[in-house]
């Protein structure tokens, strides 16, 4: 087959798509969206080390504050674009086109940043990057949920979210190396090349609605490997009626048209859901905890242990590396044990390590504490996203893009407030880093309480209440039967013989 005939086959709407099963498979979608998140975070972070030098070369002073506003510009684009992208994606029931347009916008913003002659144009480019980022975080994660059987949504989201840590891990390091070798345009060219590769993969994705036209349902339970099916079937924590409901829902989704709701009704429906509200509040809190330490860690480690900027950059690996393991692992545990267990225990185990972080002891202790606390805090994010996917399936008219749009909006607010408040506390309090960590401990404690009472189809509070009720009933039943048993034994006892 020549290239021309292959292209015609790909473009024909009435022809069966080439490699249909592969291109609509949930593992392919997970890989592509995970790659998209990696590229998104890489593009976000690769220019952070080089921004100060670029601004100085353009003749600006006070570059530290200017760099802060460049980071804020990204968050502004992220927040303001969230609602329109989520609503349009659900209204037109499409995932591919928003993803592709978002990637083209990301490439264009990097070109704009490359040739920006003044600071204002750089800020506009960063706003456009934030808008492009919204597409992969809202539409991309919704696509993964569309194509994934309900039983393993948490696991697949965990693998996709590993790209978040990977992008932040390699971005600043590569950015510094490329800047030293090729100058300011080097990191941006690298980001453009990575974005172009990501765009090619996105063009090959086939949505579920297209696959259904050819008799293939990627989200069907039949596509699960035997290991996943047997493991879930043997899991006593998954009620039978829940599994039946999930199976029925996965087959009926395509047949039942979605109810289109206006924006305010969608918001009201989500606000009425206690589980959704709890997930959003926890997301806000954990985003704040993650980002509030970022501006203070370089200053604190330099003041206490005398680290230089290169050593501080290496130290940040302790903040990013553990999340590479935490996200997939917590997603797997979420599917097998339930999101309520993972969120509550993960945040509980993070608290003592956050306390240790405030101690000015050996540097090795600080690094270990930073890594372990980062691992446990990050372990709550994937279960929260899986929780939102479950909520969207239980509310008529609310889709995956709606809940992940709200997640993106809330996370953007938390990540914007965290550095500002954390930086102000560090600058204006005598022992600033200690105050930040105690503040984070207080937030995490409240998050544990929320997770205990409100996360999960059967919350930990409800499980404890039912367990205590069973014990109480068993105790009262045994007390009630004791006299009768005693009386029967007295009547049936044989007489003494002498």
TrEMBL record:
Localization terms from the record: Membrane
Region (Disordered): 475-498
Membrane topology: Multi-pass membrane protein
Keywords (A to Z) from UniProt: Membrane, Transmembrane, Transmembrane helix, Transport
GO cellular component terms, semicolon-separated: membrane
Domain (Major facilitator superfamily (MFS) profile): residue spans on this chain: 29-459
Primary subcellular site in the record, as a coarse category: membrane
Domain of life where this protein originates: Eukaryota
Transmembrane segments: 26-47, 67-89, 101-121, 127-145, 157-178, 184-205, 274-293, 313-334, 341-357, 363-385, 397-421, 433-455
MF term (GO), any: transmembrane transporter activity
The protein's name: MFS general substrate transporter
